[in-house]
Amino acid sequence: MLARSFAAAALAAAALAVPHAASAQNAPAQRPGSSLAQAAPAPQPAAPAVAPEQIALARQVVELSGASASFENVIPAFIEQAKAMFLPTNPDLGRQFNEVGELLKTEFQPRVNELIQSISVAYAQRFTMDELKRIQAFYQSAEGQKLVRTVPSIMEETFARSQQWSQVVTRDLVQRFREEFQKRGIRL
Fold first, then answer.
1. Which bin fits 138, alpha (ψ -120 to 50), beta or left (φ > 0)?
2. What pLDDT digit, counting tens, does each position of 86-117 carry?
3. How far apart, in whole angstroms, are the C-alpha atoms of residue 90 and residue 95?
4. For the chain, which terminus, N or C, has the lower number of CB atoms within 10 Å?
5. Which residues contact 81 (CB under 8 A, 6 or more apart)?
6. Residue 109's Cα: distance from chain center in Å?
């Protein structure tokens, strides 16, 4: 479920980025004081350099935490979403989409390692070697292993509860909007 949500978000971001990049290439250059120039993201400060052994330890922590395992199904989820994008306009190509999907899964699955490595660098930049060693020890403990086994079901339950909660709050909020506008003589 987490991988499916992650895949949906990433695919949506990629789909939005392509038209944006294309329009940016065709857009005229902006003056420094223009609104588009002001909306551009500020350059990020350079990340601190981290020793390779710290990144390696951080990767062990990422793997022990179960974070890396949560990305195992991301590429297949991306492939299914891409197929779902193409199949409505090409329904007669279903078998071929399945074949190409299998081919692309083999090609793209190793790229998950890029993401895990990037996450490992992020951990290494934020935790010292001593902190990483203590975190590693925790994940190797019985309590840490229980946490890793339990987090997926907690996340599913959290997702379900948050969806239910947001529906109730949204319904109540919409009702209050109606009530407040009714006081002003406006019917929504």
1. alpha
2. 999 999 999 999 999 999 999 999 999 999 99
3. 11
4. C
5. 7, 8, 11
6. 16
Q: Are 79 and 104 in contact (CB under 8 A)?
A: yes
120 touches 59 (CB < 8 A): yes
Contact 79, 111 (CB under 8 A): no
**Hey, where are the domains in the chain?**
1-7+49-140, 142-188
| Residue written as token pair 């996340």 | 155
Q: Is the pTM of this model over 0.85?
A: no
Rounded to 5°, the CA angle 168-169-174 comes to 100
What's the residue count for the chain? Answer: 188
**pLDDT tens-place string over residues 136-187:** 999 999 999 999 999 999 999 999 999 999 999 999 999 999 999 999 999 9
